[in-house]
């Protein structure tokens, strides 16, 4: 990939240099080429591209570029407006990824809380086994394969949803957002089906453990209705654990988003990343890896902060 | 008689037993593949010439059982060899005619997807002429192909020409006539006036097997006649096949590249198990010892080691896997190394928690007070306690490796010399199989991945249930 970067620098430099007016006056093409080559070698030296990858100059250079979000231009991809800047490309795609994955993760957790706490109260034997079985199954089924099956089912056999989730109309037209939501339905349903069983299973497990605690039992003895205990006291105390579950679910889907977005052709970051990898568009790959990591770490940070808000015991810092 | 306690235990094992049965099934496939399919055949998966006699995009053969009530059975794949043909020959004044007739019983409700006739001839100095025609059940006869064989068109003939520089003739000519070839379609256009509908844009098999009034299949016995007109005695028909490509084939059908899917499923099994077991055994071993040292040592070393684990656990692995595979090649060994590198920290964290707990048990402290060395304490008291958990961890980290490998293969970073289920799904996705509805290409590989993961998860869960730390020893 380093060679790709060098190639790109060489290309962009030779373009900008040959556009120079003064060079155009030179008649001899060989002389002109030698000037261009000299300029390129000076630039390569100043950027440290001729040095091995571990040279501090090169590392500091690229680090500075990345920190200032100067991620360069993509070689093959453009935004809807025609800009090829990596930043703008990513900014165009990020909302779609967040829209799909956040909404489905929240739905999964919401379903988990509703059904999980209901099942914790009921303690039916059959439903317990069913949920445990479904949870094991959803962990062993590759989500991307399940997405393919869903496309066969809903796009080929039933023909309800489109197989390709990128809307055909341009983002400027008024009905775009509604069309986008319609195209989002199939990936959304798929991700909810994949996630809900383990979510229900974990919520049930968490709530069952809390219901067993003495203070909840005391509330029951006092005479509070069991529904109120569950909603007001048990779920409140399960808050930190449920948030952890949501956060871990979000971070887990981030990596998997590459495959799922590629299969559904959802216009998000994962799909862009996959296409960049296929086309070997190195500036875009580097930029997207950076953004993925950033988003991942940000989610984890947010998770930790929310946890300390929900459970003051965590924020003291002592072990 | 089962006591209630035994019943309870059996219930806990039910999942484990199911997992074990699944595992035995997979091991059975592995043994069959390793011992009965030679390595040479296994490496032919990506070789298109090996699969040329197979049908394209054929559904599994058992689909016909479901279509039987609707009388819409799909044509089966038929390969006729030279021995099945009826041979008749006669001599004219200056040439000899040699007829081979294949009888094809056609009883299906749909057209076959194609046919091809590969033949090879040994010819002398004068090249013979070849004619292929088909006699239909309604009495019509269509000529499909007529050609006087040119002695030097293809590579084989050039080799033959070199050999025959002296007086040693026979050349050998191998050709393959496809139903989609231009010659066949052009010759069929002669018969336009026999049909009541337009023949333009129709593939040749839909003309040959069609009724004349409307474009529906005409059932009955078809005679494919292969005729050679030879002008000397040296012309010998070496080999000929008639291949009617069906729309159903075998146990699991075929894919876009004519490959038998059941074959791919079988040769994918040992690779998946190898990856899973290799990664899981390495990462659980590393994780066991790392976690043990981190927990037992404690203090600054322990904290540092835990920080290392945290760093590894806070990396978005899928993105990193893709980047690393992109840069460092696509070998199986590299993939295994990659999964081990990011597989051990999770196991290490669990083992650390346990070893911190065990360290404070009275008998461990007692043996330390008695002056036993750290090494001996770990070996005699801590490791034996951790073994059940390690076994469970082993079983639970197999699916992670298998799923990761299939995901990477799906993205195109698999080792191309070892066909895997993930690669099959990648091919399917690239050929838009899910949009075209080739479910037989998508379902089996994914089901195998799920089944393998499921087997190990079930075994791991039931092992986890059994494992318990004991405070006494």
From TrEMBL, chain B:
BP terms from Gene Ontology: transmembrane transport
A Pfam family this chain is assigned to: BPD_transp_1
Domain called ABC transmembrane type-1: residue spans: 269-460
Topology with respect to the bilayer: Multi-pass membrane protein
SUPFAM superfamilies: MetI-like
InterPro entries noted in UniProt: MetI-like, MetI-like_sf
Keywords attached to this entry: Membrane, Transmembrane, Transmembrane helix, Transport
Location within or outside the cell: Cell membrane; Membrane
CC annotations in GO: plasma membrane
UniProt record similarity statement: Belongs to the binding-protein-dependent transport system permease family.
Name of the protein: ABC-type dipeptide/oligopeptide/nickel transport system, permease component
